[in-house]
Sequence to fold (370 residues):
Amino acid sequence: MTYSIFDREQLVIGGLNERKNKVIFERDMVSLLQKPHAFSQEGTHLIERTVERIRVAKEKKSSVMLTFGAHTIKNCMAPVLIALMKEGWVTHLATNGAGIIHDWEIAFQGQTSEDVRANVERGQFGIWEEPGFYINLAIIVGAYENLGYGESVGKMIANEGLKIPEISTLYDTTTQYMESDPDKAAAAIDLAGTIKRFGLKAGWMPIPHPYKKYSVQYQAYESDIPFTGHPMFGHDIIYTHPMNHGAAIGRTALNDFLRYAASVVNLEDGVYMSVGSAVMSPMIFEKSLSMAQNLKIKEGKHIDNHYILIVDLAESDWDWQQNGEPPMDHPAYYLRYCKTFHRMGGEIHYLSADNRDFLLALYRQLKGEK
Fold:
């Protein structure tokens, strides 16, 4: 059968300087001094319980994982996320592909979030040169360097540029690793092809990021804390650019999934917080926990004393901890981010809250403030 393939080379790609953004970081950022809206008695108790469990996890050197959707970045929560990292309250951060992109755009230009409706109408949504070129190139270079998805972008932001290898070096790498590490050999070929196709020069490519102090993945890279990216093909604006390369996405995203799974292995007595992620977080967690349990069972152990808190705006009148899984004719059964996590054992709670209020309240209580 013959199928049509969309030719991205035919796209008219705009520059970010042409794009109007809805979020200006220095105008909209959430300050550590800002107070959250008041919670109900039940919500306050849940946050206190979470703080208690984080303190225990920190004492026992167990994982404290914070996984979130892109709106946590778009809501300018970087100051809180960075403080949680720097003060040792979280050991792993994870987001989807959009979260990586919004964080990069903030580091690169201090603003993010285009008008989707208007730009789709004019055939321009997501079709921008800088994020498409630089983020994809960072991932292609990162695949060659055996980095993770988030790590590749964080390194580019931290160094404010990328090192482009000589073509001859890449060909030598291909020959050297063809049998011992075919993935690395393939990544070298991919990078060589990209360099030739786009006419890139070997050596240092400067890419200024004047707002990098606001980047969560930059701060994670500098602090040597995993910030993993978990993209899905076709979900993000970088897929519109001809620089996009599926093999590099796959190699770096797989590295990040395995790093995420390694943190789940250390989740006994630990804490997992899923904030505003209806699909990505529960899906990668269930596979990772199964893998982790597999290893623990081999050692005669089991992960049982883990704490899970799910935070989302949607209201839920079902008590998952007390009532278990609802019947299939109940709407709560179809809340994937509750149902999946409830099947993962441990202690699980659901909190209906805005991510800004939750993270601010969590941080303030960890600091001993009200």
Observations:
- The chain is about 50% helix and 15% strand.
- The CA atoms of residues 7 and 312 lie 38 Å apart.
